[in-house]
Structure formats: C-alpha cells, structure tokens
Amino acid sequence: AVPGRQAAFREGLEQAVRYAKALSCPRIHLMAGRVPQGADRTAVKAEMETVFLENLRHAAGVLAQEDLVGLLEPINTRITDPQYFLDTPQQAAAILQKDIFHWQIMDGNLTGNIQEFLPIVGHVQVAQVPGRGEPSSPGELNFPYLFQLLEDEGYKGFVG
Using an 8 Å Cβ cutoff, are 71 and 123 in contact? Predict the structure, then answer.
C-alpha cells in the first residue's frame, strides 16, 4: 500500500511465489505495508488504498496463474504495529484473511464477526489475548468455544 513501492511489492511477490512453489505451500500472505513514518494516516489513506488495490489486482493475476491463494491480515495498530495500514477487518472485509488475535483487540464480537465474514476467510490465525500466547494460555479468548464455532459454521480451512 506504500506509494512508490509497487516495484518492490512485485519483486517480493515473485520471490514469495518461488518459495511457495518450492515448499508446496498453496497460500501466500500479502502484506499491506506501513503508513510512512511521520505521515498522517488520514491524509494518506486514500492514496495508500489505491496503491494497495493496485498491488492486490496484480497479485491476484500472478497467484491465479500459479494456482496459489493470497491471504490478507489486518494487524492491530493498538499493540502490534501502530503504523500498519490494514488495521481492521472492516477496512478490507470483502478481501481479507481474518486474524482472531488482532480482531479481538480491535473489535471484539468474535462470534458475530466470524459468522458474518467466515465465507470469505481463507485461513484462520489464532493467538491468546492480550499476550499473543498459545490458545491454551490464560487470556480473554475461549478457544474451545471458538474452535467449535468454526466447525459449526462449516469452516474447512487451516487454523494456525
């Protein structure tokens, strides 16, 4: 999503495709990039969104030719990375990979959000909140409930 870095995105994508093919990995995590240091997020949002969509269109074509799937991850800006561009599920609801750790921090309402957005999910990534620990570690999330919810909703993908 970073203006002026489109060529670097394409080079990184080419390298990621080579690695994915060599490892027989069918999915590639497409990073959105960071809001430039010192920039006002609101002031650069429209331009960054345009670049991000341009990059995703390019990636979609490349990945389709290679029979690979691209995944998006909203990363919370409260704890993990204050500069990350794609910071809420709502920002990219039609095209993103859900991440339960970041989703809980930014929005909560995991049951409703999982039920609403699961049809467009390509991979579920989990970590305990607030410490980003293993699902068995103490924290806010009830993983047995969430795993059962995913099963009840018919999710057949991977959980990482």
Answer: yes
Structural tokens at position 39 = 């920039």
d(CA 90, CA 128) in angstroms, rounded, equals 21
Mean pLDDT of the chain: 88
Question: How distant, in Å, are the alpha carbons of 1, 9, 10, 50, 59 from that of 5?
Answer: 8, 6, 9, 13, 14
Place of tokens 């809420």: 88
Between the alpha carbon of residue 97 and those of residues 25, 43, 58, 137, the distances in Å are 16, 26, 18, 23
Q: pLDDT of 44-69, one tens digit each? A: 998 998 899 889 889 888 988 999 98
Phi/psi for 8 (5° steps) reads -65, -40
- What angle do the packed helices 6-23 and 41-66 form, to 10 degrees? 40
For residue 130, cis peptide bond before it (omega within 30 degrees of 0): yes
**Per the structure block, which two tokens stand in for 26?**
């069918």
* CB-based contacts of 48, cutoff 8 Å, min separation 6: 1, 2, 3, 33, 35, 85
How many Å apart are CA 85 and CA 73, to the nearest integer?
10
